[in-house]
Design goal:
CATH class of the largest domain in chain A: Alpha Beta
Mean pLDDT of chain A: 97
Mean pLDDT of chain B: 96
Radius of gyration of chain A: 15 Å
Largest sheet of chain A: 5 strands, mixed
Number of strands of chain A: 5
Structural class of chain A: alpha+beta
Helix content of chain B: 25-40%
Strand content of chain B: 15-25%
CATH topology of the largest domain in chain A: Ubiquitin-like (UB roll)
Low-confidence stretches of chain B: 1-12
Strand order of the largest sheet of chain A: 2-1-5-3-4
Number of domains of chain B: 3
CATH superfamily of the largest domain in chain B: Aldehyde oxidase/xanthine dehydrogenase, molybdopterin binding domain
Order of helices and strands of chain A: EEHEEEHHHH
Distance between the termini of chain B: 41 Å
CATH superfamily of the largest domain in chain A: Beta-grasp domain
Oligomer: heterodimer
Shape of chain A: globular
Strand order of the largest sheet of chain B: 4-6-2-13-10-11-12
Low-confidence stretches of chain A: none
Number of helices of chain B: 21
Number of helices of chain A: 5
Number of domains of chain A: 2
Number of strands of chain B: 29
Radius of gyration of chain B: 28 Å
Helix content of chain A: 25-40%
Largest sheet of chain B: 7 strands, mixed
Structural class of chain B: alpha+beta
Shape of chain B: globular
CATH topology of the largest domain in chain B: Aldehyde Oxidoreductase, domain 4
C-alpha cells in the first residue's frame, strides 16, 4: 500500500492505495466523488476526464499514486460559487442528453479553452476527439464550447 | 417552418405563451452538468456483495467441468455458483414475442447448462466482498471446455451439416415468416425493369455510454426487494423478473435511476438482473454488479445483422409496380426479449412512402454462435428504410432518372392521406412534397449536381456524390390489439397520473422511463399548458415501480406519441374535476365557467374567478366540496393509442469520395423532418442530431466483426469504431409540421427518425459518387478499405 496526498476540489485528501489503484477508482470508491463516471476500460471514451494540475487527464489512465502531490478538479469541484461558463453553456445549448459523457466532456472543454480561448469549430472538434458522446452527434457540444469561449473572452476583458 | 397548426392544448383566448413549442432549457441538466448524479453504480448499498461473472472465451463448447474451489478459498470471496449449484434459481431469460406458431424457442438460462453458445456466455458467478476481489476470483474459476465447431455465418448455419447450437431443437432455423401483399409475380410481369440487390445490414453494437449495472437489496422498508438497474424498462422488468423468479410482483420494487443512454440495449431482462435478484434472495444480502465495457461489447445485445435480398419492379416510365424482400436475420445464440420480432417491426415499412401494386415479404431467423440481437435504435425500421431507399436509388440509376424525380412519381401525394399502404397500415398524414422541397432548397441540390457533373468531367480524384433518403417510419408502439394480433405478449398503452398538491404544486407521474430524452422537461411543458401552471411548478416522477406503478416504459419513439396522450388526458381530468369544485364554490353553473391560464372565470363576470391552485387547496381541506365528491385533486389516465404515427422527412447528404484512398467524407448534411407538433424544439433537434450520428456511424464507421471461430474481433472501444467529434460535421436541420390526426396532441415521435433516415442517405451518396466507375453498391461500413476494394473490383470489370 502507498500513502498519497492529493488536493481534490480544493481540499487535501490523503489515503492508502494499492499500486494498481486507478485515480478514477480512488475518486469514486474511496472519496465518494461519484460524479466522475467510468465508460470504458481502454481509455477511449473520456467519460472519466478530470483536471490534474489544470490539464485534462483520463482518470482511468492515471494511477492514484501518480496523482500524489497534485491538484485534481472533478466535475463536482468545477463550479466556484457559480457554475463554470462551460457548464452554463452546456445547459443553454442542450449539449447533453443522457449526461453520462458530460462530466468528461465539460472538463475536457475547460482544458481546451484554457489552451485556446478562441477556437474554430475544427479546433473544438479536434480538441474533444478523445471524448465520446453517443447521444448528441456532437453538434450542440460544439455550439456550447463556442458559446462558453465567447463568454469567457468577454469576462476576461 | 411550415406550421400548419399549433398544438391543440393551448386554451382559446390565452394570454400566456404556450409552453408547448417553446425551447425550454432542460430541468434535468442542473444535476447532470454538476455531477450530482445517481447512476446505478452510484447507489450506495453498505455490505453489498459484488458479482463477478465467469464468461466463456469460446463460442461453442461443451462444459466438461467447473472447479470453483480455488476461487472459493480466496479471502473476501463469499461464494461461487454454477448452474448445478443454483438449481431452480438458475432462471430462464424470457422471450416475449413468439412471432410464429412454430417458432423454435430454445432455453436460455442465466448460467449456461452443459454448453456455451457464444463468447461471453456465463458459466459461473462469483460473489465477493468487493469488486476487485470478485474480478480476481473470476480468474481462479477453472472451466474445462470441449470445443465444438462454431458457426457465425447465417447461410452456413442454415446449410446441411452445420453445427447445431440447440441440439434438442435439431435446427438453427428459428422461424420463417411470410407476408405476401398483393400478387408480386403479376406486378413483376407487368413491369419493364426489374432491379435486384443483396444488401448486408451489418451487425452493430449499441454502446450506450453508461455500461449496464444492477444492484439488488433484500432489505427494503417492507417485505420487498428493491432492484436498481440501468434499464429503459423498469415496469416491464418487474413483470418479467416476477414471472421468472417467483418473487411476488408486489414485493419487488424496480428503480431505473439516472440511466446513461440505452438505444434499445437496455430494453431487456438480462441474466445479470435475474442473478442479482435470486442471489440477494438466496443470501439475504445486497448484491450488485457493474458491467465493464469489454463485457458490454459481448454481453449486451447487438442490433441489425440482416441479409436483405431485395427486388423492385417498375415500368419504363418509373412507376413502381412491386417489391420483393427476403430477409435472413441473425438471432444470435439465444432469443432475448423481442429478438425474433425485430426484423418484423420493419415488415410493414419496406414499402416506405411509395405506392405499389404488390409487396412480398419473407424473413427467416437464424441461430449462430454470436451475441443475441435485439432492439437497437430504430429496431427493424432502419433496416427497412435502408433497403427501400437503396433499391429506389438503384432503380433510378437503371432508368436514368433523377432519384428525387423517381420518388416524386411514386410517393403518396399529400392530398391522398389518409392512405392505406400495400402492407396494410394507414398513414394518417404526411407531406413529402413540402419536406422535400424545403430540403432541396437548403441543400442547394441543383448547384451540387452541377458541381458533381464538373468533377466527373474533369476526372477529379475526389468525386462528389449526392445521397437521398425520403423516409417514413412507424412510431407510437402500439395499439394493444395490434400487438396481440402480432403475438406480442404485452400491450402498448401508457399511463399518467397528475396530482395538484395542497399548495398548488403539481406532481406528474409517468410510466415512461427516460434515459436521456428529457421527459422531465417536455412532460412539464405539456402539463403546464393543460393546467395553466408554470413549467417549474411541475415535478415529473418516473422510473420507479413504487412511485409510478403503471407503465410500459421507453422505446420505439413511443414516449411522447403514447405517453403524451396519457398526460393530456390525465390533465384534462384534473381540470374537469377542478371545474366542478370551482363552480360549486362560486355558486355558478359549471357550464358557465371558462378555464384560461390556470384560472376558472364565470363567463361575462370577470370579477368571479379562482385559480386551479386555490381549488387544489379546497380539494385538500374538503370543507366545501360538492355533495358526494371525493377530496383531493388528481387525475389518472391510461391511454391505448388509436394507431401508430408516421413521422417522415427528406435527408440529403453530400459525400466526397477519394477515389485513390477510398475515404468517404460527409461534407454536408441537410434534413427536413416532419414529426408533427413539437413540444420542445431544442430537444427534438437534439434527438435528430444524435439519430443522424448513429445512422452515419452505421454507414461509415461501425460494424461488429466475428472471426470464423466466433470470436468478436471488435470487442472494445479500441476496435469498434465509434464516431468522434472530428468524424462528423454540423448538421442543417429543419422541419415541416403536419400534425398527426390519430394523436390528440398532433405529435408523432422523433427518437429514431435520424437513425432510420441517415444510413441510406450516406450510402446512396457514396454509390452516387462512384456510379461512373460502374459501382452499384458499397458494403457497410463504407470504410476506406471497403470503398477502395469495391472500386478496384468495379474497375477490373467485376460487379461490385
Amino acid at each position: 500500500m502507498h500513502r498519497i496526498s492529493v488536493t481534490v476540489n480544493g481540499t487535501t485528501r490523503e489515503g492508502e492505495v494499492e499500486a494498481r489503484t486507478l485515480l478514477v477508482h480512488w475518486l469514486r470508491d474511496s472519496l465518494g466523488l461519484a460524479g466522475t463516471p467510468i465508460g470504458c476500460d481502454t481509455s477511449n471514451c473520456g467519460a472519466c476526464t478530470v483536471l490534474m494540475d489544470g490539464r485534462s487527464v483520463k482518470s482511468c489512465s492515471v494511477l492514484a499514486v501518480q496523482a500524489d502531490g497534485s491538484e485534481v478538479t472533478t466535475i463536482q469541484g468545477l463550479a466556484n460559487g457559480e457554475w463554470h461558463p462551460v457548464q452554463k453553456a452546456f445547459k443553454e445549448c442542450h449539449a447533453l442528453q443522457c449526461g453520462y459523457c458530460t462530466p468528461g466532456m465539460i472538463t475536457a472543454a475547460v482544458d481546451l479553452l484554457g489552451e485556446n480561448p478562441d477556437p474554430t469549430e475544427e479546433e473544438i472538434r479536434h480538441g474533444l476527439e478523445g471524448n465520446l458522446c453517443r447521444c448528441t452527434g456532437y453538434h450542440n457540444i460544439v455550439k456550447a464550447v463556442e458559446l462558453a469561449a465567447g463568454e469567457m473572452r468577454e469576462a476576461a476583458k | 417552418m411550415t406550421e400548419t397548426t399549433e398544438a391543440g392544448t393551448a386554451q382559446a383566448g390565452t394570454a400566456r405563451t404556450p409552453a408547448i413549442g417553446s425551447p425550454v432549457r432542460r430541468k434535468e441538466d442542473d444535476r447532470l452538468v454538476t455531477g450530482q448524479t445517481t447512476w446505478t453504480d452510484n447507489v450506495a448499498l453498505p455490505g453489498a456483495l459484488h458479482m463477478g461473472l465467469v464468461r466463456s472465451p469460446i463460442a461453442h463448447a461443451r462444459i466438461t467441468g467447473i472447479d470453483t474451489s480455488a476461487a472459493k478459498a480466496m479471502p473476501g470471496v463469499v461464494d461461487v455458483f454454477t448452474a448445478a449449484d443454483l438449481g431452480d434459481d438458475n432462471v430462464k431469460i424470457p422471450c416475449v414475442w413468439p412471432v410464429t406458431d412454430d417458432i423454435v424457442m430454445p432455453d436460455f438460462h442465466s448460467l449456461a447448462v452443459d454448453k456455451v453458445r457464444q463468447v461471453g456466455d456465463v458459466v459461473a458467478v462469483v460473489l465477493a466482498q468487493d469488486k476487485v476481489t470478485a474480478e480476481d476470483a473470476i480468474e481462479n474459476v477453472v472451466v474445462d471446455y470441449d470445443p465444438l465447431p462454431a458457426v457465425v455465418d447465417m447461410e452456413a448455419a442454415l446449410a446441411d451439416g452445420s453445427p447445431i447450437l440447440h441440439e434438442d431443437k435439431g435446427t438453427n432455423q428459428c422461424y420463417t415468416m411470410n407476408f405476401p401483399c398483393g400478387d408480386y409475380e403479376a406486378a413483376k410481369a407487368a413491369s419493364d425493369v426489374v432491379v435486384s440487390r443483396r444488401f448486408i445490414n451489418q451487425r452493430l453494437i449499441p454502446v450506450a455510454m453508461e455500461p449496464r449495472a444492477v444492484a439488488c437489496s433484500p432489505m427494503g422498508t417492507s417485505e420487498e426487494y428493491t432492484l436498481w438497474s440501468a434499464t429503459q424498462v423498469p415496469h416491464v422488468l418487474r413483470v418479467l423478473l416476477a414471472l421468472s423468479t417467483g418473487v411476488p410482483e408486489n414485493q419487488l420494487r424496480v428503480i431505473a435511476p439516472d440511466v446513461g443512454g440505452g438505444f434499445g440495449s437496455k430494453l431487456q431482462m438480462y441474466r445479470e438482473e435475474a442473478l442479482a435478484l435470486v442471489l440477494a434472495r438466496r443470501l439475504g444480502r445486497p448484491v450488485r454488479w457493474t458491467e465493464t465495457r469489454s463485457e458490454n461489447m459481448v454481453a449486451t445485445h447487438h442490433g441489425r445483422d440482416q441479409i436483405q435480398d431485395v427486388e423492385i419492379a417498375a415500368t419504363r416510365d418509373g412507376t413502381i409496380k412491386g417489391l420483393k424482400v427476403a430477409l435472413t436475420a441473425n438471432m444470435g445464440a439465444y432469443l432475448q426479449i423481442i429478438t425474433p420480432g425485430i426484423p418484423l417491426l420493419g415488415m410493414f415499412m419496406y414499402n416506405g412512402i411509395y405506392k405499389m401494386d404488390a409487396y412480398d415479404f419473407s424473413c427467416t431467423g437464424v441461430f449462430t454462435n454470436t451475441t443475441p440481437t435485439d432492439a437497437y435504435r430504430g429496431a427493424g425500421r432502419p433496416e427497412a428504410t435502408y433497403a427501400i431507399e437503396r433499391i429506389v436509388d438503384e432503380l433510378a440509376a437503371e432508368l436514368g432518372m433523377d432519384p428525387i424525380e423517381l420518388r416524386r412519381k411514386n410517393w403518396i401525394a399529400h392530398e391522398e392521406f389518409p392512405y392505406q399502404t400495400i402492407s396494410g397500415l394507414t398513414y394518417d398524414t404526411g407531406n413529402y412534397e413540402a419536406a422535400t422541397e424545403k430540403a432541396l432548397e437548403l441543400f442547394k441540390y441543383d448547384e451540387l449536381r452541377a458541381e458533381q457533373q464538373r468533377r466527373r468531367e474533369s476526372n477529379d480524384l475526389v468525386q462528389l456524390g449526392i445521397g437521398v433518403s425520403t423516409f417514413t417510419e412507424m412510431c407510437g408502439l402500439a395499439p394493444s390489439r395490434t400487438l396481440g394480433a402480432l403475438k406480442y405478449v404485452a400491450g402498448g398503452w401508457e399511463n399518467c397520473t397528475i396530482r395538484v398538491l395542497p399548495l398548488g404544486k403539481v406532481e406528474l407521474v409517468t410510466g415512461t422511463s427516460p434515459h436521456g430524452q428529457g421527459h422531465v422537461t417536455s412532460w412539464s411543458q405539456i402539463a403546464s399548458d393543460v393546467l395553466g401552471v408554470p413549467v417549474e411548478d411541475v415535478e415529473v416522477i418516473h422510473g420507479d415501480t413504487a412511485r409510478s406503478p403503471y407503465g410500459m416504459d421507453t422505446y420505439g419513439s413511443r414516449s411522447l406519441a403514447v405517453g403524451g396522450q396519457a398526460i393530456l388526458r390525465a390533465g384534462q381530468k384534473v381540470v374537469e374535476k377542478a371545474k366542478l369544485i370551482a363552480a360549486h364554490q362560486m355558486e355558478a353553473n359549471p357550464d358557465d365557467l371558462e378555464f384560461v391560464d390556470g384560472a376558472f372565470r364565470v363567463k361575462g363576470d370577470p370579477e368571479k374567478s379562482t385559480t386551479i391552485q386555490a381549488v387544489a387547496f379546497e380539494a385538500f381541506t374538503a370543507h366545501n366540496l360538492p355533495d358526494g365528491m371525493e377530496p383531493t385533486l388528481s387525475g389518472e389516465s391510461t391511454v391505448d393509442p388509436a394507431d401508430f404515427s408516421f413521422p417522415h422527412g427528406t435527408h440529403l447528404a453530400a459525400m466526397e469520395v477519394d477515389t485513390e484512398t477510398g475515404k468517404a467524407t460527409l461534407r454536408s448534411y441537410v434534413c427536413v423532418d416532419d414529426v408533427g407538433v413539437v413540444v420542445n424544439p431544442l430537444i427534438v433537434e437534439g434527438q435528430v442530431h444524435g439519430g443522424i450520428a448513429q445512422g452515419v456511424a452505421q454507414a461509415l464507421y461501425e460494424g461488429a466483426v466475428y472471426d470464423a471461430d466466433g470470436n468478436l474481433l471488435t470487442a472494445s472501444m479500441a476496435d469498434y469504431l465509434l464516431p468522434t467529434a472530428l468524424d462528423l460535421p454540423s448538421f442543417v436541420t429543419d422541419r415541416t409540421v403536419t400534425p398527426s390526426t390519430t394523436h390528440p396532441l398532433g405529435t408523432k415521435g422523433v427518437g429514431e427518425a435520424g437513425t432510420i433516415a441517415s444510413t441510406p442517405a450516406i450510402i446512396n451518396g457514396v454509390v452516387d459518387a462512384l456510379r461512373p466507375y460502374g459501382v452499384n453498391d458499397v458494403p457497410m461500413p463504407a470504410s476506406p478499405e471497403h470503398v477502395w476494394r469495391t472500386l478496384q473490383a468495379a474497375k477490373a470489370g467485376g460487379a461490385a
